[in-house]
Amino acid sequence: MTAKLTLDFENLPLVEAAVRASFNDPKALSYSLVNSIHADLKPSFPALTESQQLEIAPGAGARSVEIGPGYLPGAVYTGHTGGISVHVQPQVIVARWIKDPGSPERGYPRYLVLRDALWTAVEAFQKASGDDYPGIAVVNMSYVNFIPSSDPASILKNYFSKEAQLQAMHKAQQVRKLEAAWSEDEDLDVRFALEQVTAKLPDRVTQGYRLTTAAGLRLTPSIGAKSGLEKIHDLLQVFFLKLISDRAQEEWKLRRKGAE
Fold first, then answer.
1. 139 Cβ neighbours under 8 A, 6+ residues apart
2. Cα separation of 115 and 118, whole Å?
3. Cβ of 204: how many Cβ atoms within 10 Å?
4. Of these four, 32, 62, 124, 202, which has the most CB atoms within 10 Å of its CB?
5. Residues 10-22: pLDDT tens digits?
6. From CA 232, how far away is CA 228, in angstroms rounded?
7. Residues of the chain where predicted confidence (pLDDT) is lower than 50
8. What does the alpha-carbon distance between residue 174 and residue 154 come to, in Å, rounded to a whole number?
9. In whole angstroms, what is the distance from residue 183 CA to residue 213 CA?
């Protein structure tokens, strides 16, 4: 049996990781539904607030949903000891970790913790929905890294493998954005994006690049939500290793724990 590839970085510039479960049909979020979900999540996510921004439901076509008196656009469950938040909206549930610049000692709690937070929320949502539970259509995962760089002309050469470099850009003095998206089969989509950004930290403003890697899978009768998310996670591990250069692996202090 071949071991799965597990990447362990001591110094990875990871700033966000998220896993998502999208529904084909949206579910109106009544106050009673949101509070019922919180009853199950409260031991790990004691705080509950209303969503302030829309969460995109990857792979699910946008549908209209009832929002008005007695309904919420979304709910956010926080207070997790690992810094994870759960976002429940009519067409998607998201478990997300975002790096807190004010608490650098609290790092990424790893995929298993993030994954379990998502499934706990989905189970609470299903329980509260009863017979009106819409069912999961798509699972998705994304990672965001911030790479500080004072040399925009060398970002590709320094941090990306030759496989990931675009030959037409080899004379570029400043890389602003590079993005690609494709399907590995009819149900699995992969994307990466490199974009020049400015990061506002508590004590300074830093120039650099935001690197996003993401994959999504539309479920089929032969692939369930949980096994589908595992497949996506495994793919992103392999993809990220192929994407980055030897210098990046050394600088970010990669330790491998297996091989695909």
1. 19, 20, 21, 22, 216, 217, 219, 225, 228, 229, 232
2. 5
3. 7
4. 124
5. 999 999 999 999 9
6. 6
7. 1-2, 258-260
8. 8
9. 14
* Helices (runs of H) and strands (runs of E) counted in the chain: 5, 13
Tokens encoding 10: 């001591």
Residue 198 has a CB neighbour count (10 Å cut-off) of: 9
Please give the model's pTM, rounded to 2 decimal places.
Answer: 0.92
- Grouping H, G, I as helix, E, B as strand and the rest as coil, residue 222 is coil
* pLDDT tens, residue by residue, 23-32: 989 999 999 9
Query: In which residue are the tokens 């009544």 written?
Result: 30
Instruction: Compute how many other C-beta atoms are within 10 angstroms of the C-beta atom of residue 122.
Output: 21
d(CA 169, CA 178): 10
pLDDT tens digits along 137-181: 999 999 999 999 878 778 888 899 988 877 656 677 777 888 999
DSSP SS3 for 16: strand
